[in-house]
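pasting for the record
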Amino acid sequence: MSGNGKLMTHSKVGLRVAGLANSSSESLLIDGCIQFIEQCEQILEMVSQEIYVGTSRGSSSIAAHTRHILDRFYSFFCELPAAAIDYDERIRDKEIERNLEAACLALATIARRVEQLKQTLFAEDLITVKESVLPSSPAVEISSTVEREMMGLITHSIHYLAIIALQAKAFGYPLNDDFGKAASTLVSERA
């Protein structure tokens, strides 16, 4: 069983995680959010207004995916003080979807809010999260934590950044091979 390559990969990932034991999870989650912001900034600085709102091969625009990512962060930050986040009640700000400059301003706001988290002690108190999981059923309401929601924001954002990367590449923009890839995927590829 020790010759199994997959088992070896998981061992290397385990060692990497064990090596991070001295880092606080809060700090790592904030860094993950910052990395997402940096990738969004890279795209927004690279594309023109026309490309930002344009569609590629019938798919949604870079703008639509960017707005969706930012909506979830806005829900998180706006509703966190009440300890109840309803992701179905997102703003869905169409101006971000129509205007590259508005998207840049919204991203800068999110970046400042993430930076402010560095001065916040994350409480271990539970928060309530609500979101629809089936279109024909009421929204599901569950308990969560700030850390878990931050992790969810990161993984959700990476998924959409991968789609944005495909769109940007279709328009001819060069991106680093690591752009829009999950941390676990990068670790696995480098193992």
